[in-house]
UniProtKB/TrEMBL annotation, chain A:
GO BP annotations, alphabetical order: cellular respiration; organic acid metabolic process; sulfur compound biosynthetic process
GO MF: oxidoreductase activity, acting on the aldehyde or oxo group of donors, iron-sulfur protein as acceptor; thiamine pyrophosphate binding
Keywords for this protein: Oxidoreductase
Domain Thiamine pyrophosphate enzyme TPP-binding: 49-196
Segments passing through the bilayer: none
Organism: Methanocalculus chunghsingensis
SUPFAM superfamilies cross-referenced by the UniProt entry: Thiamin diphosphate-binding fold (THDP-binding)
InterPro entries: 2-oxoacid:Fd_oxidoreductase, THDP-binding, TPP_enzyme_TPP-bd
Annotated protein name in UniProt: 2-oxoglutarate synthase
Gene3D superfamilies attached to this UniProt entry: 3.40.50.970
TrEMBL record, chain B:
Domain Pyruvate:ferredoxin oxidoreductase core, chain residue ranges per copy: 269-356
Keyword match Oxidoreductase: yes
Key words, A-Z: Oxidoreductase
CDD domains: TPP_PYR_PFOR_IOR-alpha_like
A molecular function GO annotation: 2-oxoglutarate synthase activity
PANTHER family reported in the protein's UniProt record: SUBUNIT OF PYRUVATE:FLAVODOXIN OXIDOREDUCTASE, SUBUNIT OF PYRUVATE:FLAVODOXIN OXIDOREDUCTASE-RELATED
Subunit structure: Heterotetramer of the KorA, KorB, KorC and KorD subunits.
Entry-linked InterPro entries: 2-oxoacid_oxidoreductase, PFOR_II, Pyrv_Fd/Flavodoxin_OxRdtase_N, THDP-binding, Transketo_C/PFOR_II
GO BP, sorted A to Z: organic acid metabolic process; sulfur compound biosynthetic process
EC numbers, comma separated: 1.2.7.3
The protein, known as: 2-oxoglutarate synthase subunit KorA
Catalytic activity field: 2 oxidized [2Fe-2S]-[ferredoxin] + 2-oxoglutarate + CoA = succinyl-CoA + 2 reduced [2Fe-2S]-[ferredoxin] + CO2 + H(+)
Residues of the Pyruvate flavodoxin/ferredoxin oxidoreductase pyrimidine binding domain: 15-246
Source organism of this protein record: Methanocalculus chunghsingensis
Length: 262, 366
């Protein structure tokens, strides 16, 4: 099999906007799945509502496109009823951390054997650019016309604190690193959470002086601080560059997990 | 050989589910339904099934739907506030044609209301509670034996119609302890598998598509968006949406006479009681206390889809009296289907109509 064989070709072309990074995240995911020789008929992709959640519809496996925020609860049912299925969840920052926040922390606490890939575009893209719990302070959106006046969630901190076995963050720029990280997550028993910072030129960029896709991706690349470098700066008591965010494997442990295939 | 036991209604329902082959339960504690979850938590691991306590009822309903799509008979149990939380995903189950069972041990509402007392206040919510148009199947037990029998039946109906089925019990029947007979085996009719060459949401003659559980090579895409027969989103096609919604309603409604489950007493009577669930017990006593043959009685075990043809089984009926533990929810439905006066006898607060009260009211219409 190749990555091509995992796509549901009769559903293409997809609905993502020009310049959207979701496609490369789907690609990385399928590349990782394929490299592990996972079987199409033993794999289920589950999602909620939003741009990210359209991903399972383009993949040829059994797939469940559910209600807003509830993908993890549906996925928990699939995995608990049949441990032999590989279950991967696609979600977004609004779906996962606003309406689905409770399901997120509980799935992590249970450490249920799912791989959760969050496409964090820091905005509600599907509904036209409203602010999300991951919209940076000060950023403009249709519901924060004077700038976001709330702090954003750190989804990886949340997943780690709640008990997930594997937590990593990359961006849509870091395709190779992301693919490797997803592969690690897929293999890890328990809950693996992979946050992918992704550009939304249509609904985030154009309201925040990042109209150009390349400018958006470059900004992500330039502000991504490798975990190893971050740790070194902290150890040396040097300042962390302003506006940066940490990328890499943030948590990797082997706490008891639920729903693991025997 | 049947086994005889003396037990609570909620536990009889859980035993019915296990007998029917239910092997996945997801739920959240809520009075007065918690004994169903507790019993499933004890028993499921011993029969190779799995139990999970979810973080709320929204998640419980979601997990049940997820479990059902693996081809495992799946159930949850709840009461009023939890039932309200489940509504969005119940609509998802109806629209995606997911067979599953929801047990609702009704309590007094609205809101937190009376957690420990009985009501039948969710009868319209189970029919109309989620947004959009759809149809559902609802059963109403009036004894502990029926908690067992009708739970089994709920699974068979859910599978046959690929729709959520509701066991609409109440606190009294849920907590009542009575004699129950457990048969050695119960009738289990699994969903019809998809036929070669058919699409996953392409209906057969009875308007129900063959089932395509996950992990069996069907490669099905399931979405709560309006979808075509392949299961693919097609949410801006007006005709397709209309056809789909009408089929989902029609597949259940057209079977309403065939699947009707009821008892009829004194069909020649002029004054006729119609009841379902626990008020049936008061009506039965009232009929025993009245002169023989004076009053008629229709007891419904399947309430939705509503079998309106049964009203014609009382050719001399001048009036229908409908005692319910609500403000006349099913009485409204009965009014739609007959010319006679329909007298709603509501009872709120958690206590039953006494047989004497029913006889006094019946006397007024003799």
């Amino acid at each position: 099999m190749t990555v091509e064989d995992w796509f549901r070709h009769d559903r293409l072309p997809h609905i993502f906007c020009a310049g959207c990074g979701n496609g490369s995240i789907i690609n990385s995911t399928l590349e990782a799945v394929d490299s592990l020789n996972w079987k199409v008929d033993e794999t289920v992709f589950v999602s909620g509502i939003g741009c990210s959640s359209r991903a399972p519809g383009y993949i040829v496996t059994d797939s469940l496109h559910t209600t807003h925020g509830r993908a993890l609860a549906f996925a928990t049912g699939v995995k608990m009823a049949n441990h032999d299925l590989n279950v991967v969840v696609f979600t977004g920052d609004g779906d996962l951390s606003a309406i689905g926040g409770n399901h997120f922390i509980h799935a992590c606490r249970r450490n249920i054997d799912l791989t959760v890939i969050c496409m964090n575009n820091q905005i509600y893209g599907m509904t036209g650019g409203q602010g999300s719990p991951c919209t940076p302070t000060g950023a403009l959106s249709t519901t924060t016309p004077y700038g976001m006046d709330e702090p954003a969630f750190d989804l990886c901190d949340l997943a780690t604190a709640a008990g997930a076995n594997f937590v990593s963050r990359w961006t849509s720029y870091h395709v190779r690193e992301l693919t490797r990280s997803i592969k690690l997550g897929l293999q890890k028993p328990g809950l693996s959470f992979i946050e992918v910072m992704v550009q939304c030129p249509t609904n985030y960029g154009r309201r925040n002086r990042l109209r150009d896709v390349e400018a958006m991706v470059s900004k992500m690349r330039d502000h991504a601080l490798l975990k190893e470098k971050y740790d070194r700066l902290v150890a040396e008591r040097k300042p962390i560059p302003e506006g940066s965010f940490v990328v890499g494997t943030l948590t990797d442990r082997n706490l008891p997990a639920l729903g693991v295939r025997r | 050989m049947t086994r005889v036991d003396f037990m609570q209604g909620n536990i009889a329902s859980a035993e019915g589910a296990l007998a029917a082959g239910c092997r996945f339960f997801a739920g959240y504690p809520i009075t007065p339904s918690s004994e169903v979850a507790e019993h499933m938590a004890r028993r499921l691991p011993k029969v190779g099934g799995r139990f999970i306590q979810m973080e709320d009822e929204i998640a419980s309903m979601a997990a049940v739907i997820g479990g059902a799509w693996t081809g495992v008979r799946s159930m949850t149990a709840t009461s009023g506030p939890g039932f309200s939380l489940m509504m969005e995903n119940i609509g998802y189950a109806a629209f995606t044609e997911t067979p599953c069972v929801v047990v609702n041990i009704q309590r007094g509402g609205p809101s937190t209301g009376q957690p420990t007392l009985a009501a039948q206040g969710d009868m319209l919510q189970c029919r109309f509670g989620s947004h959009g148009d759809y149809s559902t199947i609802a059963l109403a037990p009036s004894s502990v034996q029926e908690m067992f029998d009708l739970t089994v039946k709920s699974f068979n109906l859910a599978d046959r119609f690929r729709a959520p089925a509701f066991l609409m019990a109440d606190e009294i029947i849920g907590h009542l302890r009575e004699r129950v007979e457990f048969p050695d085996t119960v009738e289990c009719t699994p969903p019809r598998p998809i036929r070669e060459g058919m699409l996953p949401f392409e209906p057969e003659e009875d308007l129900v598509p063959g089932f395509t559980p996950f992990g069996h090579g069907h490669r099905v895409h399931v979405t709560g968006l309006t979808h075509n027969e392949k299961g693919y989103p097609a949410s801006t096609d007006p005709d397709l949406h209309e056809r789909l919604v009408m089929r989902l309603i029609e597949k259940v409604e057209r079977a309403r006479h065939e699947i009707a489950d009821y008892d009829i007493e004194n069909p020649d009577a002029e004054v006729v009681f119609i009841s379902y669930g626990v008020p049936t017990r008061s009506v039965r006593q009232a009929l025993l206390d009245a002169p023989e043959g004076l009053y008629g009685h229709l007891n419904l075990r399947i309430v939705w889809p509503f079998p309106e043809n049964l009203l014609k089984k009382f050719p001399n009926a001048r009036v229908f009296l409908v005692p319910e533990l609500n403000m006349g929810q099913m009485a409204r439905e009965i009014v739609r289907h007959c010319d006679q006066p329909v007298i709603s006898l509501p009872r709120l607060g958690g206590e039953l109509h006494t047989p004497q009260y029913l006889l006094d009211r019946a006397e007024e219409y003799r």
